[in-house]
Amino acid sequence: MDAGVEVIDLHAYIAKIDHEFKTQRYDDINAPLLYIRILIGEATCNDLTDCGATRNYMSQNFMVHIGLGPRVRRKSKPTQVTLYDGHTHKSNDRCIDAIPVYFAPHVSEAVSFDILDTKFDMSLGMSWLRSEDHPVNFYRRTVHVRDRNGVLVPCTVPPPHPSIICHVVSAANIRASIIRDDIEEMRVCFLHTLPPQDIPSTDALPDPRITELLDAYDDVCETPHGVVPDRPIRHEIILEDGAVPPHRCIYRMSKEELSVLRAQLDDLLEKGWIRPNSSPYGAPVLFVQNKNKELRLCIDYSKLNAQTVKNADPLPRIDDLLGRLGGAKFFSKLDLKSGYHQLEIRQQDRYKTAFKTRYGHFEWLVMPFGLTNAPATFQTAMTTEFRHMLDRFVLIYLDDILVYSRSLDEHVEHLRTVLERLRQAKYKANLDKCEFARQELEYLGHYVTPQGIRSLADKIEAIRVWPEPTNTTDVRSFMGLAGYYQRFITGCSRIVAPMTRLQSPKVPFVFDDDAHRSFQALKTVMLMALVLSIYDPTLPTRVTTNDSSCGIGAVLEQHDGDD
């Protein structure tokens, strides 16, 4: 043994190191964030107050949620967002100017925001903190604003989660403690290693070619109006033999609904999408509230639909569409603005679309929502326009167009081809809902990436918090949502067998222990759902089968390279 090497008790040394890690505290991680509650329109959110940010930011999702898309403008020069360590993280080229923000009753200010992909709904930075008298006490974690009388009003809310003392323990020390059997209880949080900061982000500055391309085709993103004639596809309404115009009464409306009705009728008339008529047909109108809490005009075509000969043209299978994305690394998503209204109603069928309101009797010149064959007509129109591109670099499901490519150079040309086709056919895209040259984006209820597809976090969260079913309808609703992601679950039919039986009207509803275990097991495996690799025809493939008392099935499998 070398001189000077101290002989110690190895067990005592490991115990000492383990104790040091277990008692080590990281107060900077423990510090709660500072939130204030604000109101924009009818939407309330908790805003992050960030003195380290030089600007105010609003998330893309929250902007869409509260319906501020029409107020978004594109900057003449994109702004780079730089992290504390000096690395450029994102670029921002969109903003909203001077929207009224309420911080308390009768306390409002006009605040401008940059639009940025962030997990927080909103973040107020130094541009707001220094713009008015907004006293901030970081020790007490409070923020005040002044009302119209100059009185300071608090607007801070508690953090969304309790403060947690974090202990960082190495895997080796955890293993040593387990071997010694000296842990009575512990909770473990798994941390993922982040890539080095010098690796380019997938959301870095957009390629200049993409920016130039969008500028060259800015007419494709104009607001649609009028009727585009001579398209190869028009919507037809073919009635069954012996059909007669149904008689319907006008539905009653509130004062607010009448005001919205008048405004929407004026807008449709101005765009040239409807016109007055005296048709024997006349469907009543009603309003439904969308997710942004705005009133949406709907027409009850149920009687007309019952008389209409159904179109058997199918919509694409979503799993078939997603299966075409193998090997793709860049994606762009285009959403058509008021897509249905960009298709013409066949002239001899227009009188059948008539609807009656307190302010007059009207018929549609373009295809409205609510007609039984409208989705099939629209899908046929899109297939006709993009037929030579489908499954090569374009996927289409109704008004959602996905462009996918294996390289950025290839993607620029593919995107140019699609935009040129839209221009020639005079279709208009909704820029607020479009995404360009992304390596990850949401499409048809899934998140697509170069590595594969995964389920959406909000859908998984909905499953996680779903209450235990109390009747057959509850079971069917839960199974409908979970079934949408059944491809991510190994042995799905076996897990859900007890609840599948409860969907039958011939089986008395008894949510027994088997059903409870099935319910909890399905929620658990959904929370563990991983990325589903897309089929690659160049890799070896095997067929895995299963035949049991619960179900029978088979699946194609490919090795993902991980043992």
TrEMBL record:
Keyword NADP listed? The answer is no
Family matches, as PROSITE patterns: RT_POL
Pfam families noted in UniProt = RT_RNaseH_2, RVT_1
Q: Name one GO biological process term.
A: proteolysis
- This protein's UniProt keywords: Endonuclease, Hydrolase, Multifunctional enzyme, Nuclease, Nucleotidyltransferase, Protease, RNA-directed DNA polymerase, Transferase
Coiled-coil ranges from the UniProt annotation: none
**Domain of life per record:** Eukaryota
According to the entry, every stretch annotated as the Reverse transcriptase domain falls at 269-448
GO: which molecular function terms?
A: endonuclease activity; peptidase activity; RNA-directed DNA polymerase activity
On whether Lipid biosynthesis is a keyword of this UniProt record, the answer is: no
Q: Which CDD domains match?
A: retropepsin_like, RT_LTR
Name of protein: Reverse transcriptase domain-containing protein
Q: Which organism is it from?
A: Chara braunii
Taxonomic path: Eukaryota, Viridiplantae, Streptophyta, Charophyceae, Charales
